[in-house]
Amino acid sequence: SFMLDKLSTIQDVEHSYKYYQIMRDTQPVWYDEQTRSWNVFRYQDVYTVVTDHQRFSSQMKASRSLDRVLENESRIKMGKALTRLDPPLHRRYRNLVSPAFTPRALSRLSGRIEAISQELLDQVRAAGKMEFVADFAYPLPTIVIAEMIGVPTSDRPLFRGWADELLNSQIQRAEEPHDGDSNVRRMVDVFAEMSEYFDRMLEERRRHPRNDMMSELLAVELDGERLSTEDTISFCITLLLAGHVTTLNLLSLAIYCFHTHPDAMERLRKQRELMPGAIEEVLRYMSPVRALRRVTAADVTLGDVTIPKNAQVFAWLASANYDERQFAEPERFDITREPNKHLSFGHGVHFCIGAPLARMEAGIALPMILQQLPELRIETDQPLELLEGSGILGFKRLPVTFTASA
Ligand code: HEM
After folding, report:
1. What residue ranges carry the coiled-coil annotation (predicted)?
2. Residue 170 · residue 142 · CB < 8 Å
């Protein structure tokens, strides 16, 4: 079953797209007994589910074991994370962080993104090979988001440890882990560590404000009140997690698409201006986020199927992006595709707040990579392994070779 996205290999990904196509044609709104969830496959329906926040709520009760345990035992209530709120509260919280993501605020980061990318490339250029995930795709977005929030770059190993544990824990997707599960216990510890860490950082900012997001969040007021420390911490954690795994995988998936479409790679080397369109096509062609979860707030009819109230719904972005009702020749990787209204960043009030940042990071880093690493290829003597369990498409490792240079 591809329903819970147990994708281990690239062949699985290819099969999943065949499967989505069959579902779009035969059972576009399908109830899965095993996961007790409704699954939506067509572009128009996926669009409705992710956009219509009145009927498809993001506010989920803590049904999963991890959520429940965190809710009871941790000071950090991830239930207040942006992705879990509905309007009107959602808008108020989102407004607090959105200034950090305006084009003007982001343009100040572009020099740093270029400098970090250059530093990373300088470390590998002479070797003629690297493990792209560990040597480039992982550190770049992590350093950028860390600098944005305001945590010292020297604490990167800490971040990496937490992110790895959260990613590898599998429990985000596991059917019903029980409270005593050692994985669940470990996650509670990870959240406690993160929360202590940010607590210390925030305490420091309270005494000595700096020019960073933590200081700004502390100064901000919501309905005349300061944001609580708990809410500020959960904001930082959300950004840290949402911002780096997805972007790291976008970078790896782009390299994979270029490797498998050498003609596109050649064109992009010569015509840098095609890169923004190519990045959108990578997002459409291999959506890093496969599906979004919602809960029905009422009985809802999609096509000729009625989904009852309080049902869990998965909107399959990856399937919507291949819907032939929306995209001509969806199976073709076309860097000049126009229009390209993929749903990989979601849509509506929850539209990815970090999309401009992700686009900017990829838009700066990928041309530098193509320019500075001639004959870039993925080493394919070992089968490529995908990340499992996170619900996010990406590679565990991506060994590449290129022509060495001084
Ligand atoms: C929301 C994907 C990069 C922060 C979302 C959503 C998607 C998404 C699909 C919608 C969730 C929903 O409707 O339930 C991606 C992809 C990225 C990426 C594919 C990279 C290629 C980033 C970055 C950041 C970020 C770089 C922050 C630095 C967020 C936040 C939300 C969000 C805070 C919640 C917004 C809300 O609920 O209002 N992202 N994201 N993302 N993303 Fe991203």
Report:
1. none
2. no
- Give the whole-angstrom CA distance, residue 156 versus residue 164: 12
* Six-digit token string for 9: 């290999």
Lowest mean pLDDT among 52-56, 139-143, 293-297: 139-143
Residues with CB under 6 A from ligand 1: 50, 58, 82-83, 94, 145, 238-239, 242-243, 246-247, 250, 288-289, 292, 344-346, 350, 352-354, 357-358
Burial class (CB in 10 A: 0-12, 13-18, 19+), 381: exposed
Write the pLDDT tens digit of every residue in 306-323.
Answer: 999 999 999 999 999 999
Number of C-beta neighbours around residue 108 at 10 A: 9
How far is residue 227's CA from residue 93's CA, in Å, rounded to a whole number? 10
Whether the predicted interface score ipTM is above 0.95: yes
- Protein residue closest via CA to atom 28 of ligand 1: 243
Q: Which domains does the chain have, with CATH numbers?
A: 10-401 (1.10.630.10)
- Angstrom distance (rounded) from CA 11 to CA 5: 13
Using CA atoms, how far residue 384 sits from 17, 272, 288, in Å, is: 18, 28, 16
